[in-house]
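Have a think about this chain, tokens included, and walk me through the fold.
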Amino acid sequence: RHVHYEEAFRVVPYALELLARDGGDVWREAVDASDVDDYIRSQLDEDDTREMAFNFIREARRPAFVPDLLQQALDASQPTDARLRSIQVAAAMANRANTPIDTLEALITDEQGRIANEALTILGRFRDNASRKSLHAFVLDDTRPRGLRRTAARLLVETKPGAMALLKSAEDGALSTDI
């Protein structure tokens, strides 16, 4: 109320920084208010305040923002660095409950290798059947870049079921020799 419209833009970064301080513990109740969440979401679209919003989401551990962050990462009109940062912030809080696998599958097929690599990393952390199947299918798809397929293979072998699936594919001749 006491900030004039012209001054509001200068206050935004400070407000976001204040809300994020100490992991947002002091502000936890305020953060749970949907108006604050809506405001933070709106700041993700602003070049000047995006980084502050990322910091707030990460520091305050706001997993409810994971789908928003991944949707932003899907937007090819966004700068590559902003898309990568969206995935990295989402990765800090991603879990099977709050991360749509279809969004990750869309991101692992992104034309930009860095975007796909970050999405593969999140997918590999889940270690469940659905993510394992997505990674396995990615490894077997010869149209995908070899480096990314190798990354997916490394993520698969971190679990016994993933390693067994790759071994079976190799025995069946389905796994290309360059992997």
Summary: The CA atoms of residues 110 and 116 lie 5 Å apart.
